[in-house]
Structure prediction request, 191 residues.
Amino acid sequence: MPRSHPIVRDAVPDDAEALLSIWMDFTSDPPRQPRPSTDVDEVARSVRRIAEDPMQRLVVAVTGGDPVGVAHLRRAPVSPIHSEDAVHVGYLHVMSKFRRRGLGKQLIETAADWAEELGSPHIVASVAANARESNRFLARLGMSQVAVVRATTVSALKGKLRTPVGPAVIPNVVTARRLMRVSASRGPAGR
Prediction:
């Protein structure tokens, strides 16, 4: 049976189950955080919400009739102080067993085509810092690293914000031992 030619199209709510599978592959290769729990109905609602927003797209790479890759495209300013905008590509992922078939390149090409349609002169892609393969892929396409994105939960951040930010007072162990020896050599009254 001949392999069907892969295509990239906008995600539809019926893709929810496949999108969950892609997400599970995405968060486990290499292990990434956060991995919020979700269900098929929530994914379908999210796909509908994104489809209604003219500044966003969720596109899927489809092969054999099934989505096996995804990219979230979002039009937004390059920075808060610039009027030029960019198409920001996030959550770019092709399932492990479907890599090296040009699907990632097709997803990025879709982002570039949309940026041209919108008149956006820039593409900004975000991938995990420890995702070597993804970072190498984007570097081969001429994209350079401009930032590191970090994430945590609000409760974890609030916990850290409540602790002092400055350096903790750590006693100098060598000095403390020296003082103890001097004190011990002088006797109990510190003669």
About this structure: The domain at 7-155 is CATH 3.40.630.30 (Aminopeptidase).
